[in-house]
Amino acid sequence: MRLKIWGCRGSVATPGPDTTKYGGNTSCVEVMLDDETAVVLDAGTGIRALGLDLLQRGTRQIRLFLTHLHLDHLEGLRFFAPLWDENVSLEIWGPRSPVESLRDRIMRSFSPPLFPLDFRDVPAVITFHDLPGEPWLGGGIALHSDLVLHPGPTVGFRLQSGGSSVAYLPDHEPALAGIDTSSPDWISAGALARDADFVLHDAQYTEAEYDAKIGWGHSSVADAVAFGELARVERLLLFHHDPLHSDTELDALQVRARELWRGEGAPPALAYEGLELVLD
Amino acid sequence: METQQQKQLVLILARAFASSLSTPTLLADARGFLVFYNEAAEAVVGRRFSETGEMPLDDWIAAFEPRTGDAVPIPAEARPPRIAFDERRPAHAEYFVTSTDGVEREIEVSAFPLFAHTDEFVGIIVIFWRT
Fold this sequence. Notes:
The structure holds 2 protein chains of 2 kinds. Helix content of chain A is 18%, strand content 27%. Chain A is α/β, with parallel strands linked by helices. Chain A has a single domain (2-278), classed as 4-Layer Sandwich (Metallo-beta-lactamase, Chain A), CATH 3.60.15. Chain A is globular, with a radius of gyration of 18 Å. By secondary structure, chain B is of the alpha+beta class. Chain B has a single domain, classed as Beta-Lactamase, CATH 3.30.450.20. Chain B is built from 5 helices and 6 strands; from the N terminus they run αββααβααβββ. Chain B has helices at 9-19, 39-45, 49-52, 57-62, 80-87, and strands spanning 25-29, 33-37, 55-56, 91-98, 104-117, 120-130. A 6-stranded antiparallel sheet of chain B has the order 3-2-1-6-5-4, with helices on both faces. The longest helix of chain B has 11 residues, at 9-19. Chain B is globular, with a radius of gyration of 14 Å. Chain B starts with 8 loop residues before the first helix and ends with a strand. The model of chain B has no long low-confidence stretch (mean pLDDT 90). Chains A and B meet through β8 and α3 of A and α1 of B.
């Protein structure tokens, strides 16, 4: 199993000279599997370049797993080139809502005045599937999902292949319900991240910034580190970088994360566009 | 995935909510097990939750001998927690209990079911007051 990060910025795309090191595209991660199946996590603006790459590779079967439908995780979908290819089959998986179907909620962004075309105009064959549910199995992996603490229906993922695992928790504020408890089963996403080789986890804010943004759904670097230690992760990758944070400020965030880290695994690092993770 | 026990997110949030309340509150999961009560409840029942641990809610409540003002025992199925659990609807009642410190107390109990989705029952929340 290999993963490639196509976008790890939070909230809004942030291109420019201050973000060239970590990248300005919003959340999108590609999972490359044994059987050439394309699995994509989230449809932030990073998915635009990924889509072009997938078509160039001849990929026509794609599974897109959405953690939630906030715009920074969905805004790239309309510009995902495979969507506009009638030979493409696309499964979209996302968290269900008690009031409206996944399809209807996504369709809102494909209609005027937000977008010139209607969802009916999309030529790819698309099916919709609710999460969480039974693990998705394919390409030699099991993809588990569970609801996690973030405003609105939101899931996190754990991908397992043999003895290797990766957890993807780009938008997550476990501290809101407490992460200082002695019972790991009471920590949001604790089971998804437990003993994972890599955990991509929200660390949008510095500790000082977080004080003014409690309840917004994102973590401080200190809480991300605390979560990683409690879950005994092998390598914590800080994700969902704040759009106000330049490369220089993100470098400092990584230094702070490593000061705080008391876990047994490797010291935390920052996710960046183009980073590839290889698991045995 | 590892088979580690993970509480449902609604229960995690309810526990955080209950922890912040000064009103005695307890939670049971979809199995009917008491999984948490807050400090305000600890003051009434006379025992910390860490000493009690998870256990069937009916068994835990029975230890307090719920009864009417005429000392008639109230069966489990007539108590608000069991109604909320079995019938998946809110329920409220007043009755007498004996705390672990031996003190008889009159309390009012409200219980209601928790649904993550309309078809996904995850447990109940029970709030009680001393009258």
